[in-house]
TrEMBL record:
Name recorded for this polypeptide: Protein kinase family protein
Keyword Transport: no
Domain Protein kinase: 100-336
One Pfam family here: Pkinase
Classification via InterPro entries: Kinase-like_dom_sf (IPR011009), MAPK (IPR050117), Prot_kinase_dom (IPR000719), Tyr_kinase_AS (IPR008266)
Keyword set includes Transferase: yes
A GO term for molecular function: protein kinase activity
Organism superkingdom: Bacteria
Keywords, in A-Z order: ATP-binding, Kinase, Nucleotide-binding, Transferase
PROSITE patterns associated with the record: PROTEIN_KINASE_DOM, PROTEIN_KINASE_TYR
Amino acid sequence: MNTRLPTTNGTAHFWADPSRTLLKCIEISERLYYKLKETKIPIQINDYYRNLFHQCGEFLSYSGGSTIPSNMEKIDIYYKIPIYSLAHNIQIKSPTINSQIVMKSFDEGSYANIFKYKDPFYNKHFIVKKAKKDLNSKEIERFKLEYETLKSLSSPYIAEVFTYDDDKNQYVMEYMNWNLHKFILTKNTTLSAGVRKKIVYQIFKAFEYIHSKSLLHRDISPNNILLNDYEDALVVKVSDFGLVKLEDSQLTALDTDFKGRFNDPALKHVGFKNYAIHHEIYALTYVVYFVMTGKTTIKRTSNESLNQFIDAGLNHDFALRPKTVNELKNLFKEII
């Protein structure tokens, strides 16, 4: 791919066969990471490669070749830097008993490292989100704002948080079995339409509640929607409010770059600071399509009623999109 880079202000075509090969390599690498991170020897992906995988995954395609986006530089290849390394464990004091608990590295976000531990008092798992050490004061404030926003919400469809440690800039939250992305991809061949619809209705419930609080999530994706898979039910909860848009808040991130496959492409032109409800409707529609089909690339389906729902929620004319989550939900009810 480096032979097609840099793209400066234009784009470049990357041929179909090497596109497929590179995409398969990335998917195998990420699958290995998810398989091993829950073992006794948890691993982590080097930050450089993690960011590179994400960047390439945004435009690589299995069919017809790929369009390399503009302003992409040549990729530096570091032969002596391993893709994987052992994840570092950290220790904390249990909030319930006076003992040391070892926490395993679980995941990583833009602002935080995420750890998982089992509390011996409650005999259940919890998650700790710990702000990265290189954050500036404004970013730390925004990280704490995410906690305070979650703490202020009370809904069975919103991830629950518990305590914030100002000294360590970290907070404890509930542990969920899955994120939506991994759940759908793992179980896609066995999920019935009925189960998929139940998941969608819970997602609608979550965002009806969020919007009722005059909030816009602004980072809607299957990775930020969590699930608990109980013996008799699936429970959906929304998390990751790091980009939440609050009314009259000086901490709302207005200069955030457009990112993510599920965001409205129109944001590239209007700017993320102008994010509004119709952009949230677009992202929700895209997530519903993913739940119902298991696919992340929008294509016409054999279900015309589903196609009509997608056409409405992704309409290029903002005025023709549903105005609220309730309107979107009513359209979804029409799907046969």
